[in-house]
Specification:
Layout (H helix, E strand, L loop, with lengths): L1 H57 L4 H26 L4 H10 L1 H24 L7 E4 L2 E8 L3 E5 L5 E5 H6 L2 E3 L5 E10 L5 H13 L11 E7 L4 E10 L3 H18 L17
Antiparallel strand pairs: 1-2, 1-5, 2-3, 3-4, 6-8, 7-8
Helix pairs in contact: 1-2, 6-7
Length: 280
Amino acid sequence: MFLLATVVSATRLERMIDRLLEQGASLGLTLIKAFLIFLIGRYLIKLINKIIKRILSRRDIEMSVKTFVGSLVNVVLTILLIISVVGALGVQTTSFAALLASAGVAIGMALSGNLSNFAGGLIVLLFKPFKVGDYIEAQNTGGTVKEIQIFHTILVTVDNKTVYIPNGALSSGAVVNYSRQDTRRIEWTFGVDYGEKYDKVKQVIESVLARETRILPTPAPFIALNTLADSSVNVIVRVWVKSENYWDVYYDINQAVYTTFNEQGIDFPFPQLTIHKGGE
């Protein structure tokens, strides 16, 4: 009896091992198939993205639309790849879809921000408050628009930082576009000492502006005595320039006024405090 029981146990163990080996081999093949689908899918996605970019680059389409479409295609293809890999692992796609549907409320809440960002991206493309290459200020950040993706707009700041701003915030918040108009107005306030002759100060500023060829003649430069401040007489100056010349003209005129004022003996003020002693 003992020998018979031992033979039966050995047979069961052998069958169990055979079954485990079969299941392990099947699982291994399934994993290998899913991994191959993933690798091939990633390669095809990169290839399709390159083809789409090449096609879009040949068309007369705004860069904003090109980057948005490229981002959208990449996301859609990635979702399809995930579904394919899940199917290759033996999970029924219908069951997978049903699982997603059953968790629809939670997923909707989690993706509500991204859905608003997607809608915001469509609004940006439709109404075009800015485009790729424009310098804008939004959400307390200023920079040049590099890409408009389906969920975010990428800005590059003047100190070469990359900033991702949600499209939802851009479509519903204030955006200042410095590149939309061909011309911009520059404004300075120059303070001089009390006692300086205003006519002389104005004449010197006019001579500095006349030497700057990038200043537009129309509208004409504006110079006026603005305020009588605590320690200075403030003269306001306004001129119009091409938008691309804004900062160069701004800094060059600052330097030219400083140099010319010193040459003409016009003093810049310093904070002053007058103290009166009692009985005097």
